[in-house]
Amino acid sequence: MTTQRPERADQDVKSADTSVPGGAQANGAASHVAFGPAVFDLDCQREVERITSFMRRTLAGMHKRGVVLGLSGGVDSSVCAAIAARALGPQKVLVLLMPEQDSNCQSTSLGAAVASHLGLRCKTEDIAPALTALGCYARRDEAIRSVFPAYDSNWKNKIVIAGGNDGKIHFFDLIVQNPKGATSRARLPLREYLQIVAATNFKQRVRKTVEYYHADSLNYAVLGTPNRLEFDQGFFVKNGDGAADLKPIAHLYKTQIYALARHLHLPESVCTATPTTDTYSLPQGQDEFYFALPWAQMDLALWAFNEDLPAAQLAQTLGLPTVQAEQIYADIDAKRRSTRYLHQAAQLVEPVFAVTTHSAP
After folding, report:
1. Alpha-carbon distances, residue 52 vs 247, 265, 284 (angstroms)
2. C-alpha atoms less than 13 angstroms from C-alpha of 349 in its C-beta half-sphere
3. Structure letter (DSSP) for residue 310
4. pTM more than 0.90
5. List of domains in the chain
6. 71-105 tens-digit pLDDT
7. How many C-beta neighbours within 10 Å does residue 347 have?
8. Closest Cα partner for 107 from 97, 115, 116, 117?
């Protein structure tokens, strides 16, 4: 059995003494382990074989010849690309680099390095002109100027979540940086928040449109790359990065995907990369924008919630007050409720029995 996990998953986390059933047992984890990062231990070789079999079987059922996916250079898309290459052969995997004006240039260079490392066909599609034509940047900047009137296209920006960890209702702050490097922060009114998010969602939807263009031209399927935390908590854009024909790692926690990255001998820069949104022009971690905790702790929180562990046990493991662990559980449940519609197919007046559909995005 190959059991690996990234060193980052152990940071700021201690194992509780209480043994709990292994939630990842179907993926090759031990049946009983102390609650902590070890619950994510994975038989990596067995899991890769399981996913490659799933990919071949799924594509055969769809009558598709290969897969297309967007490659950011992050761990999720890189692991998906590596497994797809093993399942289908590198010649049947097309990866796309889709930068725009707010993208970190390192994302494009890292994605290209991963494609070269895996021997994959790689195309670059600059989506900035399409986003400009759709008004993505103009609509976003209009909303930002409602809060910071001096803001212009030379400034940088990001949205950060606030309030929830204190047991209060979540709200969002807008952070801007002028060309001299000075930053300002203010609470975002609801209307401006919704407009900024709606405008930036153009990015994910345009990327997916490009992916489906290439998939249609090659008779390929589109491969989606959400991990379990993102899929469970609705951290995706409907008809954007949430759209795909198959999602081969949606059952795996982020910690397990980092383990797979090392097992697959992906570049060290991928195996140690910190998850980011790469959506706003200022650097932004996923925990700043959406999740209550950094990814390693959030993995444990979601696992504990799924296994019905008491909040006090999560608190002990993460070194948090019990009341904060209870708030994290409440946030997990609230996100599931509020994002349930993202997983739903279009609703019908009555079933159309002649057509079989699957509602998962």
Report:
1. 12, 17, 33
2. 0
3. -
4. no
5. 7-132+197-343 (3.40.50.620)
6. 999 999 999 999 999 999 999 999 999 999 999 88
7. 7
8. 97
